[in-house]
Amino acid sequence: MPSTIDIRRRIRSVKNTQQITKAMKMVAAAKLRRAQERIFAARPYAAGLREVLSSVATRVNADEHPLLKAHDEEKKVLLLVITADKGLAGAFNANVIKAAMNAIREHNWESIELIPIGRKANDYFKRRTIPIRRQATHIFHALSLDTAREIAKGITDDYLSGEIDTVYVVYNEFKSIMSQITHVDRLLPIARDWDEQATAIEYIYEPAPEVILAELLPKHIEFQLYRYLLESAAAEQGARMTAMESATQNASDMIEALTLNYNRIRQAAITKEIIEIVSGAAAQN
């Protein structure tokens, strides 16, 4: 049976851990609020870009553009795996890595390469046999559109040169603090899921629609990747906030159980001392 001194030390240690988890929860809540604001600010631009892209694409022969034309077979695949740089976020990183491994096993891809985004993905896959084409770590502390543009440019160049046939992205989508949904989305070739029934209004474009489309498609890829990164950043903070709240509650339960055990041991020791005193007094009489 542990002594009261050991239990007091354990209670003190758990309380210190609880203070850390509380502080991490507050930090995650602040970061989550900023990440949500960035997502909400990006949505109007995404909607506007999509509207213009849809309008232009329905007025030209979109099959002629290489970013829209799918290759005959998916032989050489590039997989972007977006995780966090840090842990202590529940199953956030594990879910993304698991989804990536499931996608690799389920598809009969002849050749596959990876771009791990985030230190956790890089640490996991560098110990595996799957080749890593490039890596991007420690980008979330100063995430910007320029970061997404740099990554997207390398991917687009590889696709246009024929080195890869398809690009997929594995990431966590932010739904709420308690809910993050893991997705495997195709980034290239660009999915032509816009409305084929264009508006009846005919516009005069300057320069030509083909030139505008050629300018819009790379920007669309950049912003899609930027949106994936924003979603992942917000989902990470939501998962960390939930994990730290659960850890704080578990610490409270442990402190309560340790305190109860401490009081029982202390009460037993007091009772034993009283019995010894009474027994000693009775023996003298």
What layout of secondary structure does this protein have?
Blueprint: H1 4-57, E1 76-82, H2 92-106, E2 111-117, H3 119-125, H4 145-160, E3 166-176, E4 179-188, H5 209-284
Parallel strand pairs: 1-2, 1-3
Antiparallel strand pairs: 3-4
Nutshell version of this structure?
By secondary structure, the chain is an alpha/beta fold.
Written overview of the protein:
By secondary structure, the protein is an alpha/beta fold. The chain folds into 2 domains: 4-25 and 243-279, ATP synthase, gamma subunit, helix hairpin domain (Helix Hairpins, Orthogonal Bundle), CATH 1.10.287.80; 33-239, Pyruvate Kinase, Chain: A, domain 1 (3-Layer(aba) Sandwich), CATH 3.40.1380.10. It has helices spanning 4-57, 92-106, 119-125, 145-160, 209-284, and strands spanning 76-82, 111-117, 166-176, 179-188. Strand 1 (76-82), helix 2 and strand 2 form a beta-alpha-beta unit. The two termini are 35 Å apart. 26% of the residues are buried. The mean pLDDT is 85.
What's the number of extended β-strand segments?
Answer: 4
Write down the CATH class of the largest domain.
Alpha Beta
CATH topology of the largest domain: Pyruvate Kinase, Chain: A, domain 1
Question: Termini distance?
Answer: 35 Å
- β content, as a range? 5-15%
* Residue windows where pLDDT falls under 50 for at least 5 positions: none
Side-by-side strand order of the widest sheet: 2-1-3-4
CATH superfamily of the largest domain: ATP synthase, F1 complex, gamma subunit
Q: Give me the secondary-structure category.
A: alpha/beta
Query: What does the overall shape look like?
Result: elongated
User: Residue share in helices?
Assistant: 55-70%
